[in-house]
Amino acid sequence: MRVMGLDVGSKTIGVAISDAFGWTAQGLTTLKWNENDFTTANQSIAAIISEYEVSEIVIGLPKHMNGTIGERGEISQKYAEYLTDKFKVKTILWDERLSTMAAERVLLEADVSRDKRRKVIDKMAAVMILQGYLNGKQ
Prior knowledge:
Elements: E1 2-8, E2 12-18, E3 25-32, H1 42-52, E4 54-61, H2 71-87, E5 90-95, H3 99-109, H4 114-137
Parallel strand pairs: 1-4, 4-5
Antiparallel strand pairs: 1-2, 2-3
Helix pairs in contact: 3-4
Enzyme class: hydrolase
GO biological process, one term: rRNA 5'-end processing
Main location: cytoplasm
């Protein structure tokens, strides 16, 4: 059983998956979706859950720096509830403050071009979210 990490944005969802032992997170893909219609990612999410035998989904919870939850956080909370109901998989909300900025910094330090960064930033943020969760469990 593996853990899937999601960085939920308005147009894309970054996806990461843990190794079989739950020690490390690897970037998997970036899904295109419409946040106004949660079903638009169902087929892809269902395929990943099945292929990797996902037992938990960790969803990044964007919070303001003062700890409050805004509109983006509320959407993540609603999507977590939706995934639990739809796929009968445990969902965990994980504080993702600065995960996208950390992913951007890693990619900049690796000298990844702006165009390539744009293509992988959501997947990298999902890795940061999932790895943070996995580290917190150990």
